[in-house]
Amino acid sequence: MRKCGILLHPISLPSHYGIGDLGKESYAFVDFLAEAGQKLWQVLPFGHTGYGDSPYQSFSTFAGNPLMISPDILVKDELLSEADIAELPFFEPCKIEYGKAIDFKYSLYRKAFAAFDKKNKAYRAFCRKNAFWLDDYALFMSLKNYFIEQRKMTVDSKEYKAYRRNLKKYMPENAIKDRFYGASWNSFPEPLRDRDEKALAEYKKMLKNEVEFYKFIQFEFFKQWADLKKYANESGIEIIGDIPIFVAVDSADTWSSREIFRINAKGFPIEVAGVPPDYFSEDGQLWGNPLYDWAKLAETGYDWWVKRIEAVSQLFDIIRIDHFRAFESYWSIPFGAETAKEGKWKKGPQTAVFDAIKAKLGDIEIIAEDLGDLNPEVLELRDKLGFPGMKILQFAFGNFDNPYFPHNFENNNCVVYTGTHDNDTTLGWYRSCDEKTRDMVRRVLNVSGDNIVWDMIRMAISSSAKYCIIPVQDILGYGEDTRMNTPGVSGGNWQFMFERGKLTPEIAANLKYLCTIFNR
User: Is residue 202 flagged as an active site residue?
Assistant: First the structure.
């Protein structure tokens, strides 16, 4: 069945609290999707975001983002009072302010936690069901906070200096300082760093209340999301979730499962992820994520990956795997390298991970993010697995045999986008094109260019692709100043928020009309 939907991360929804959440604006957005005849809502990764605020660099691949918890729902559940949310800090309109939002929302969460019944049956059941990741995550976050306060860190090692040079490529200086002066798990005292059972038990006891607080936060996140997802599904909307292929260096995942990553005995990466020079950067992109030890994972039957996909499949109806090409081959960069140019290709696990997932979980609908520097083997792997790939219309206008042109789609098992979170908005992209490219766009679409965004939206919806996804910025006709992310640039990303009331009935009617005439 052909379907259409909108790409919108909940943090970009309008909010009084400095960042969008899972409250009433999320429900209003589901209502808009239904009114507009849409069947899909695509979101970005839901992980607990770390330094730099990127949803692709989180403190846990299993935990949800606490900032997406709705204070209004906490009031409804009588964990907060109206007085608790009566006096709000000033937040810039239409811009996410992470620092202020974190300070304010966590102050609310701690009040809610104080009012929460820790013997709540649903809460205890949640903790038992998710103990395989929740226990490590809650202790990890508690330890980070404790050692940030203690400011315990040795900074004269070679590893620290190499790590700092590496981090400068993708992280602001203040984040580097916070990471090293007591925050990163490889700065913990050695018994904790190396997960000595006696040391873990000691700190679990000492930080018991803080550990419980982080478990409470996750309970609230997953409860709020489950209610919202149910509402969306009952409204005929499926959720496409996003999963980064790699995890952050400083995460509960690497701390608790070091053996499946290319990390040395002191907790530092041996080799890190990125991509070679490409469309976005002439130096390539140095992401800095530790690479997997695929041989170790194979010995376990890819158990960690199976658990990861199982957890995500409970959150979403369809899963998009970011940087799918790394399952065929991945770009390995020596830790401490100045740029991604110093990397080389290494072979990935091919179909083995997905064979293990299917054997344990059955069929799961997966979209392969097959963009970037590809070779024929990547496309063969995608097709062998039967996963739809992605077609970005902004990439089409180079020559007439370009595979991103709808008339050149090899089949309809694909997802077409005007652009993604990593691209400029369609209006921003068109404005930045040279006149030759703009002329080609107008000729191909047979338009004047006066309404180029909706012309591109029409092209996407009318294509043969199985699914069509339009970023909300394009639905709203916004320009380059509302771009979500610029790859390779460390600052100014993930801050887009749109204004309440902008998704009008007229926009809904236009979308529904296009989806009706093109049978989506």
Answer: no
Amino acid at site 233 = N
Exposure on the CB side of residue 229, measured as CA atoms within 13 A: 19
Could you report the per-residue pLDDT of 136-168, keeping only the tens digit for each? Answer: 999 999 999 887 766 544 445 555 555 555 555
Q: Which of 53, 370, 422, 424 is catalytic?
A: 422
* Alpha carbons 67 and 21: distance in angstroms, whole number: 7
Q: Catalytic residue at 434?
A: no
Would you say 6 and 41 are in contact if contact means Cβ atoms under 8 Å apart? yes
Q: How many CA atoms lie within 13 A of 197 on its CB side?
A: 0
Give the number of other Cβ atoms within 10 Å of residue 364's Cβ: 16
| b (16+ CB within 10 A) / e for 245-278 | bbbbbbbbbbbbbbebbbbeeebbbebbbbbbeb
- pTM assigned to the model: 0.92
Helices (H), ranges, 2-130: 24-35, 71-76, 98-115, 121-129
**How far apart, in whole angstroms, are the C-alpha atoms of residue 225 and residue 23?**
9
Strand arrangement of the beta sheet that strand 285-290 belongs to: 285-290, 271-275, 329-334, 344-347
Whole-angstrom Cα distance, residue 487 to residue 489? Answer: 6
Residues 6+ apart with CB under 8 A from 120: none
Q: Concatenated DSSP letters for 133-152?
A: HHHHHHHHHHHHHHHHHHT-
Angstrom distance (rounded) from CA 50 to CA 57: 6
DSSP 307-340: HHHHHHHHH-SEEEETTGGGGTEEEEEETT-SSG
Q: Which amino acid is at 96?
A: I
Tell me the CA end-to-end span of the chain in Å, nearest whole number. Answer: 8
Q: Which of 322, 424, 455, 474 is flagged as catalytic?
A: 322
What one-character DSSP code corresponds to residue 496?
Answer: B
How far is Cα 451 from Cα 115, in angstroms, rounded to an integer?
53
Taking the C-alpha atoms of residue 216 and residue 218, their distance in angstroms, rounded to an integer, is: 5
Tens of pLDDT, residue by residue over 211-241, are: 999 999 999 999 999 999 999 999 999 999 9
Q: Which of 25, 369, 370, 424 is labelled catalytic?
A: 369
- Cα–Cα distance, 73 to 105 (Å, whole number): 13
> Do 47 and 243 contact (CB within 8 A), yes or no?
no
Q: Which of 5, 21, 32, 27 is nearest to 474 (CA)?
A: 5
Based on the residue annotation, tell me whether 422 is a catalytic residue of this protein. yes
Region of poorest pLDDT, from 25-34, 332-341, 395-404, 487-496: 487-496
Q: Which residue has the tokens 């899972």?
A: 22
**Which pair of tokens denotes residue 415?**
């997802």
